[in-house]
Design goal:
The protein is of the alpha/beta class and 1027 residues long. Helices cover 40% and strands 13% of the residues. It has 29 helices and 32 strands. Helix 17 links the parallel strand 12 and strand 13. The longest helix is centred in the middle third of the chain and has 36 residues. Belongs to the group II decarboxylase family. It comes from Dufourea novaeangliae. GO terms for molecular function: aromatic-L-amino-acid decarboxylase activity; oxidoreductase activity; pyridoxal phosphate binding. Pfam families: Amino_oxidase, Pyridoxal_deC.
């Protein structure tokens, strides 16, 4: 190969590496091959004639890459990081190109001297004491070894030699061989396997010492063992302490171990192969407290400092001890500069050595100290995100607190669950994690390894883990049911009766309007058959009687495991019907009930409150019976908080309070338009409120009008959050169709997700199937040979059914109704789907190291002006208020709604933090206001299984549309019994957009099936079954 060919080959190889790196995220991290795969692909002998470099490079992709475990993939979370960066790769190329063998200074002066300088740079960077550096007047210094395994072995051999010579001086009569048989070394039972192997290779028994509850080796343990061994006539020579153990990233206590080793003339070697990289950040150097007692110290830049393997940095306080152990002189190795610079052949086991310092030099220069610190801190931030995921899911437990980038967790329960989880994850090959043992329990180790890792990669890994965990639990459900939980026995009948009492008056008004709504107002009114509209609207009457257990059960498929689907299933179980399957598209139950942890606070990503804190609300009753509402029950006061303007002023309280209550009166006036039902069209809610605000402003003193206007227009943004969309799309006349249950809004202190427990615990085993998105519902078959309906999932699995309860969100129906149902839905149903509004709401949780606000003062309400709200080119205009959380003094929650909520989802976390901080600084008038330490946000709009938040009454919406959406197909007056039943918050007039509305709708459709089952004495009759 000539120079030109080399250049072409080199460029192609660089392109190959770049493309490979860019494609890592799309590749399965583990290969799909079996042992011996390569032998079947490559010839048995080398080629007789040279081949082209193009053929060789092509074969790398064809034969080698399929068998590679992608250690630098962002989906690799096993072991510890193996560093990789473009500067290091180029440094490696140059090192190979130069091709020197730097065993002595003369063999390659640059190779030796650059290594001396780099070891000094790196030692200073991590904060090592000067005694370890080459620039010190003493005998200390650093050398690059191939691995931490080599470094440990080198130090153990040096300790063995040093101790033997020391004992020989004390006992000249003793033979060196005899002395060496008495030597013993110590390490913790958590240290790396390479430490134990070093003992084998050095012929020094390595005693594994027990650790404390945090897996740390303590001084008392070491001291007691030393005393015991001395009494036995053994000679301790070395202790290997670990900073960042392999299993749990535990830290041995150097401040306790060091003095003991020094007092007993025991060499203390510190293995900080992984954790040592974190010491480039000053805030983590406390973890190496006591390093001044060490004789040697080792970190692996090839783990976490972006230097490609191999590059293991070893420092010693007295390099003479290494030279005494490894120096062998030959005439051909001698040179006249000996003693003026290190001959590194005497600091290591092999003679030859590569130019490793070149790539370290490149990385330190091209990243700089700040770049390396940013890399470490970013990795740890991602690890914090994963830790919070684990804490937020009650199926898992952290076995020990997170240490740097390692999270150790397990599935709650028997080890076989965690073992099965690991097996499934390995089989899937999409992420790579490995097991470990903690106090005899099997755990999963998850490490942030790749420099390419981003937040979405952590989310991807968590989704894979929870998906497989759901499968594990499904397969183990019978065993898990042994845990006894208090059953939920309260009949739903009294709950529905209480709710129904609130509906009676509104129903009468709504039904009286139905005919005029459908005929367009004027002209001759069409007769509406009572069996259609009235039957569509009326809730099924609850019958507490059980079904006859001797009769056959119909087959029911429930699409969606949110509140509506679970409530329907729970009601079916209460009445003795268990032949149902719930198909949930995601890997968790609850739908928009999704509680996560941020720091010390529960962050409700979706549903926030029980809207109506009294026994008339079935969700309140459910929470109370489950013991989730411990007194005193917290009811937020929406009137509290500072109204701040965009010019950085807090509006005076007398003005803001008066304006606030004035706006609430306007809101009540808008709500009464529905009950008036005078036939007059008031247009959009924005127009109605805008006119009324202008009218009310005249009642304020002139000097207060500017601020009062800002308060009231800012409050329109809060109303947007109830609807989830711009008020110009909301019907003023239908706004009041919402029925407000008394009792105020109530938060569930330990997470809204707790409300699901009584609904889940009584479900039949394997009835709830996760990760089962539905692709098609075929319905309407009337022949004996075909089921009445077949629900097909995206994975191809099909479920026949007599009844299908559809609980998917309205937003999903808007996007997919034409593809989801075969045959298509009738025009009346499609019109309801299209005409009803569906809003977007998201939340952004901000965690601060120190709060800048006064706690329990209600947060910050953004008093936008009308002109500011008219220009919505910036998504931050969708922020209505930034509230404090009652359970935390350092977390704020920003509410954002409308199209701006969807725009926010397109921004990166950094952009969101920057924009929120800019708004806060603008409205508080404080340019020094800090950035949040952590951010957590919802993304409901882009989620294909939600496509938004909840329904509202749009300009063309009517209560009739909600009734049409709720009506079964075929209708109740058709000869064929209903097949498709629809539930969800959008199908419940008066209680749309609420969790209790979703619950009532699920109960309603379950009751419909129960009544039909009683009528038919089992599954529904087909026309041919008539007798």
């Amino acid at each position: 190969m000539d120079t030109k060919e080399f250049i072409d080959f080199g460029k192609a190889a660089i392109d190959f590496v770049a493309n490979y790196t860019d494609s890592l995220r799309e590749r399965n991290v583990l290969p799909d091959v079996e042992p011996g795969y390569l032998s079947d692909l490559l010839p048995e002998e080398a080629p007789q004639k040279p081949e082209t470099w193009q053929e060789v490079l092509n074969d790398v992709e064809r034969y080698i890459i399929p068998g590679v475990t992608h250690w630098n993939s962002p989906h690799f979370h096993a072991f510890y990081p193996t560093a990789n960066s473009f500067p290091a790769i180029v440094g490696e190329i140059l090192s190979c190109g130069i091709g020197c063998i730097g065993f002595s200074w003369l063999a390659s002066p640059a190779c030796t001297e650059l290594e001396v300088i780099m070891m000094n740079w790196l030692g200073k960077l991590i904060g090592l004491p000067n005694e370890f550096l080459n620039c010190n007047d003493g005998p200390g210094g650093g050398v690059i070894q191939g691995s931490a395994s080599e470094a440990t072995l080198v130090c153990l051999l040096a300790a063995k030699e040093q101790t033997t010579r020391r004992i020989k001086r004390l006992h000249p009569e003793w033979d060196e061989t005899f002395i060496k048989t008495k030597l013993i070394a110590y390490t913790s039972d958590q240290s790396n396997s390479s430490v134990e192997k070093a003992g084998l290779l050095a012929s020094v028994p390595m005693k594994l010492l027990p650790t404390d509850e945090k897996c740390s080796l303590r001084g008392e343990t070491l001291l007691n063992v030393i005393k015991e061994d001395l009494e036995k006539g053994l000679i301790p020579c070395c202790t290997v302490a670990t900073l960042g153990t392999t299993g749990t990233c535990a830290f041995d206590n150097l401040e306790e171990l060091g003095p003991i080793c020094n007092e007993n003339d025991i060499w203390m070697h510190v293995d900080a192969a992984y954790a040592g990289a974190a010491f480039v950040c000053p805030e983590y150097r406390y973890l190496m407290a006591g390093v001044e007692y060490a004789d040697s110290f080792n970190i692996n830049p090839h783990k976490w400092l972006l230097v490609n393997f191999d590059c293991s940095a070893l420092w010693v306080k007295d390099s003479r001890r290494l030279i005494e152990a490894f120096s062998i002189d030959r005439i051909y190795l001698a040179h006249d500069k000996q003693g003026l610079a290190p001959d590194y052949r005497n600091w290591q086991i092999p003679l030859g050595r590569r130019f490793r310092s070149m790539k370290l030099w490149f990385v330190l220069r091209l990243y700089g100290v700040e770049g390396l610190q940013d890399h470490i801190r970013r990795s740890l931030k991602l690890a914090q995100i994963f830790e919070k995921y684990v804490k937020s899911d009650n199926r898992f437990e952290l076995v020990i607190e997170r240490s740097l980038g390692l999270i150790c967790f397990r599935m709650k329960g028997d080890d076989k669950l965690t073992k099965e989880l690991l097996s499934r994850l390995t089989a899937e090959k999409r992420i790579y994690v490995i097991p470990a043992k903690f106090h005899e329990k099997l755990i999963v180790r998850f490490v942030v390894c790749s420099r390419l890792s981003r937040e979405e990669d952590i989310t991807f890994a968590w989704n894979e883990i929870t998906k497989q965990a759901a499968e594990v639990l499904r397969s183990q459900t019978p065993a898990l049911q042994e845990e006894s939980l208090e059953p939920f026995t309260k009949s739903t009948a009294d709950i529905a009766t209480r709710i129904e009492s609130l509906n009676i008056e509104a129903k009468t008004q709504k039904i009286s309007l139905l005919s005029s709504e459908k005929c367009g107002g004027g002209g001759k009114k069409q007769e509406i058959p009572p069996c259609t509209k009235l039957a569509k609207f009326e809730s099924c009457q609850l019958d507490p009687c059980m079904l006859d257990p001797c009769k056959p059960e119909p087959t029911v498929v429930i699409i969606g495991g949110g509140m509506a689907g679970l409530s329907a299933a729970h009601r079916l179980v209460q009445c003795g019907l268990q032949n149902f399957t719930i198909l949930e598209a995601t890997d968790r139950p609850g739908g928009r009930i999704h509680s996560c942890w941020l720091g010390d606070v529960v962050a409700e990503m979706g549903a926030t409150w029980i809207e109506g804190g009294c026994v008339a609300n079935p969700v309140f009753t459910l929470a109370a019976q489950e013991g989730l509402l411990k007194p005193p029950v917290f009811r937020p006061d929406p009137s509290r908080g500072l109204f701040c303007t965009s010019d950085g002023r807090a509006i005076d309280l007398p003005v803001s309070i008066t304006a606030y209550h004035t706006f609430r009166q306007i809101e009540q006036q808008a709500a009464t338009l529905f009950s008036l039902g005078c036939g007059r069209t008031h247009g959009t809610l924005l127009n109605f409120m805008g006119v009324r605000i202008q009218q009310e402003l005249h009642n304020f003193p002139e000097e207060q009008r500017y601020d009062a206007a800002r308060v009231m227009y800012g409050m329109t943004n809060c109303v947007r959050c109830r609807c989830g969309d711009d008020l110009s799309l909301v019907s003023a006349d239908q706004f009041g169709s919402y029925i407000e249950i008394p009792g105020g809004n109530i938060r569930v202190p330990l997470g809204y997700v707790g409300i699901l427990a009584p609904l889940l615990r009584d479900l039949p085993s394997c009835s709830l199937k996760y990760c089962k998105p539905v692709s098609c519902v075929r319905w309407g078959a009337i022949s004996d040979s075909c089921p009445r309906a077949v629900v097909k999932c995206c994975d191809g699995e099909e479920y026949p059914a007599d009844y299908v309860i559809v609980t998917v969100p309205l937003g999903v129906l808007k996007h997919q109704h034409d593809k989801l149902f075969c045959p298509a839905l009738p025009a009346e149903k499609v019109e309801a789907i299209c005409k009803l509004g569906y809003g977007y709401v998201n939340k952004i949780f901000l965690e601060y190291a120190r709060p800048f606000w006064v706690w329990k003062e209600g947060g910050i309400k953004l008093a936008w002006s009308a002109d500011e709200l008219a220009d919505r080119c910036d998504w931050v205009k969708g922020i209505s208020n930034i509230e404090e959380l009652s359970t935390s003094q350092h977390v704020l929650c920003a509410w954002i709604c409308g199209r701006e909520a969807a725009d926010m989802e397109l921004c990166s976390d950094e952009e969101v933090v920057e924009s929120i901080t800019r708004v806060l600084r603008q409205f508080t008038g404080d340019p020094t206001l800090p950035y949040p330490a952590n951010l957590l946000r919802s993304k409901w709009c882009m989620d294909q299984y939600f496509a938004g938040a909840y329904s509202y009454m749009g300009l063309d919406s009517t209560v009739g549309h909600q009734c049409d959406l709720a009506s079964p197909l075929p209708g109740t007056c058709e000869p064929i019994p209903p097949i498709l039943l629809f539930a969800g918050e959008a199908t419940i007039p008066g209680h749309y957009s609420t969790v209790h509305g979703a619950r009532l709708s699920g109960i309603r459709e379950a009751e419909r099936i129960i009544q039909l089952t009683k009528r038919f004495g089992g599954p529904p009759k087909k026309p041919s079954d008539k007798s």
